[in-house]
Write a structure and sequence with these properties.
With 296 residues, the protein is mainly α. It is built from 13 helices and no strands. It is found in: Cell membrane.
Length: 296
């Protein structure tokens, strides 16, 4: 039986669907299509100003212009950032989730503490770690002084990018942990009991039962980590403002769009290149990770 009755009421699902679809087309898909179109033009940010199609000139400027070395460094830094954040963040999150899932005393408190950075917001997180990494009176530098070492942290040309990676992992590890925890709690307990009867060790139980059955959670976390890391610019903006060898592709898009010249063709081309990188990594990750997923 049709759940929405007969006559005009049958149209309700389509009407309810039409409004969010209109918003999606207007505010997400539409601007995305125009970004691709603008990447092939010399459009500038002056209303009513005519523009012309320039073919691939904006894309050539990204890779072959005078400052192309900086752009390529940003791309390399983005790949480095994405790789380290994805691996370390998911490794730590899985480890913490497995430990918390052992029903330790105060597990809800641990869960809240690890998830707290997710809800703090980038500005608060940046303020916390700017104070912690204060080169003069910061507690971290005082700890370093015990080993006769000091650092300028976010003001260091060699180490600032590493500290940004650390802050990014600290900020979002709790989010990944929560997804892993949900996956772990959905694993049937009778599988562990059957494994225990067969004499499996803890490692064998994790490798043969737990890990395959939380593969969907693993896939979701890896994809979210890749997409989030490749889009990250806010924590860079709040800590180093792109200085000290910390620029990434996402930061370049932000800078060229909002703090560069009035030209919008080049930022649009940068956005398209960034999207293609994300799309490539997501497709490869899905192809590799989906093969591991099992059902029970």
């Amino acid at each position: 039986m049709y759940p929405f009755g007969r006559g005009v009421t049958r149209l309700w699902p389509y009407l309810l669907f039409a409004l969010p679809m209109a918003f999606y087309l207007m505010f997400l898909l539409g601007p995305s299509i125009f970004t691709v179109i603008y990447s092939f033009t010399d459009v500038i940010n002056i209303p009513g100003k005519a523009y012309q199609f320039v073919g691939l000139d904006n894309y050539k400027d990204i890779f072959f212009a005078g400052n192309s070395a900086e752009r390529i460094d940003s791309i390399k830094r983005t790949l480095q950032f994405t790789f380290i954040v994805t691996i370390v963040q998911n490794g730590l999150a899985l480890l913490v989730a497995v430990v918390i899932n052992q029903k330790l005393l105060g597990d809800k408190l641990y869960r809240s503490v690890f998830f707290l950075p997710v809800v703090l917001g980038v500005a608060v997180v940046a303020l916390i770690w700017t104070l912690m990494f204060d080169p003069i009176n910061g507690p971290v530098n005082k700890f370093y002084s015990l080993f006769n070492y000091s650092d300028t942290f976010f003001g260091s040309f060699t180490n600032s990018f590493g500290y940004i990676i650390f802050v990014q992992i600290w900020m979002y590890m709790g989010h990944s942990m929560l997804i892993y925890l949900a996956g772990l709690q959905s694993v049937p307990k009778d599988l562990y009991e059957a494994g225990y009867i067969d004499g499996t060790t803890r490692w064998q139980s994790f490798k043969k039962i737990t890990f395959p059955l939380i593969a969907p959670a693993f896939t979701v976390n890896i994809l979210l980590s890749i997409i989030g890391a490749m889009q990250t610019f806010d924590i860079i903006l709040a800590t180093t403002d792109g200085q000290f060898n910390s620029r990434t592709m996402a930061y370049d898009v932000y800078k060229e769009t909002f703090r560069g010249s009035l030209e919008m063709g080049l930022p649009s081309a940068l956005s398209v290149v960034q999207f293609l990188f994300i799309l490539l990594f997501v497709i490869v990750a899905i192809q590799l990770l989906r093969k591991r997923e099992v059902e029970y």
